[in-house]
Design a protein that fits this description.
Blueprint lengths: L16 H7 L5 H8 L23 H11 L4 E9 L10 H4 L2 E9 L9 E6 L2 E6 L5 H17 L3 E6 L5 H14 L6 E6 H8 L1
Parallel strand pairs: 5-6
Antiparallel strand pairs: 1-2, 3-4
């Protein structure tokens, strides 16, 4: 702050495990209200082994999912830069790194399996569980558009990583990608199945 002439006012709030300990819930209303009137939110770790026995609807991670949804934090940007002299220290294949690797993963955060219907059940004496992946067109459109916008600022290449050979939701992702690509003719678009993508990288 001193270097650039800024003054920061910090307001510390509870989220996750410490919030459960203090208030009984992972995302207290006081925290939600404070975040909504702040210019920025710095978020630390939310959980740990201490809370592993918490019921699924009141685990520390529920606080993380709730704040993402509450603040519409739908895009998680994960940059990875590897310099050639360090390629032997990376799990990424050396032939992929080449003279250096610079990729940006744009991950969707507020839709899909984390926010779909879920539950456990017992049928004919057998216990089971389910998690439902659901995406709406607008949810996909905004993250796809973010991907294209970042691609335009970088090398103008964008890969959609999905499971479109199996999942209807992934086929919808591809449809949105194809439609949005028309607005970004400079961007080279490609598609990969997630298991193949992992195999190619590692």
């Amino acid at each position: 702050g001193e270097k650039f002439g800024f003054k920061f006012d910090y307001d510390y709030q509870l989220l996750g495990g410490c919030a459960i300990d203090a208030t009984g819930v992972p995302y207290p209303q006081q925290t939600a209200d404070a975040c909504k009137v702040s210019d920025a939110v710095l978020l630390g770790a939310v959980g740990g082994p201490k809370w592993d026995s918490q019921p699924g609807n009141n685990r520390p991670e529920k606080g993380l999912l709730a704040i993402r949804e509450d603040l519409e934090l739908f895009a998680n940007l994960r940059p990875a830069k590897i310099f050639a002299p360090l390629k032997s220290a990376s799990p990424i294949k050396e032939e992929i790194i080449g003279d250096g690797l610079d990729i940006l993963i744009v991950r969707e955060l507020t839709g899909g399996i984390y926010f779909g219907d879920r539950g456990t059940y017992e049928e004919n004496g057998v216990v089971g569980a389910y998690d439902t992946e659901r995406y709406t067109y607008p949810e996909i459109k905004r993250i796809v558009k973010a991907g294209f916008e970042y691609a335009m600022k970088r090398e103008k290449k964008l890969t959609c990583v999905d499971k479109a050979n199996v999942l209807d939701s992934s086929r919808l992702w591809r449809k949105v990608m194809e439609e949005t690509a028309k607005d970004y003719p400079e961007v080279e678009v490609s598609y990969m199945y997630v298991d193949n993508c992992a195999m190619q990288l590692v």
